[in-house]
Amino acid sequence: MVVMGRIAGPFGVLGWIKVLPFTEYVDGLLDYPVWWLGEGNGRWRQTKVGECNVHGKMLTAAIDQCSDRTAALHLKGLQIAVPRSQLPTLPKNGKDGYYWSDLIGLEVINLQDECLGRVVSLLETGANDVLQVQDEKEDSTERLIPFTDQVIMKVDLTAYRLTVDWGIDY
User: Fold this and answer.
1) What pLDDT sits at residue 110?
2) Which helix (H) or strand (E) holds 69?
């Protein structure tokens, strides 16, 4: 499964949900008539998507078995995923980009071979995506590193490693 968004909460009183998509375009999830909902622990449940609309940077959607606001409220925070087999295959060289879910968990090292931490999340800023990197040491430093050609030197999905031109003291 590839996580494509998160349920942000209820929308209205008829069981609709607000969805924060993690796709390149806000309407990217509209391509999938079936979503899988889960907490990220490997257990997913399938749900059919009814009507779905773009609402600013969010989606609003009616889904199966969610007919009132209370039911929608219980879904808040759940991840939305689709099977990887339904996604377009991206070349391993990254020419057409990467799925965010493939980057999360990668070890981040700089050109001096210093470990900066692991990618815990990504942020979409409009200009470029930003890696949220968490240091695994006791001080638990968080770094925000732009995902640009000038900073990202190499993405090695096989070795679970991302090499960046970024100082440890930035």
Assistant:
1) 97
2) helix 69-74
